[in-house]
Hints:
Elements: H1 29-67
Zinc ion (ZN) binds at residues 4, 6, 14, 16, 24-25, 27-28.
Amino acid sequence: MAQCDGRTKKGERCRREPRAGSAFCSIHVDQEVRARSTRTAEWDRDSTLKAALGFALVGAILLFRFRR
Ligand SMILES: [Zn+2]
């Protein structure tokens, strides 16, 4: 049987049933939102860094070509 992935205030695993389509019960649904937003922030930082590196590389190649 499914079990909520949330943690109680005592730090114990929650024993309630999760909501449909979720890994958390209605009490710990805020823990799910927090986990998701943290993951999104990390992804955004990573993709922004990669995009910046890509633009820097293209810029360096173009600069190198125009100089010759
Ligand atoms: Zn719970």
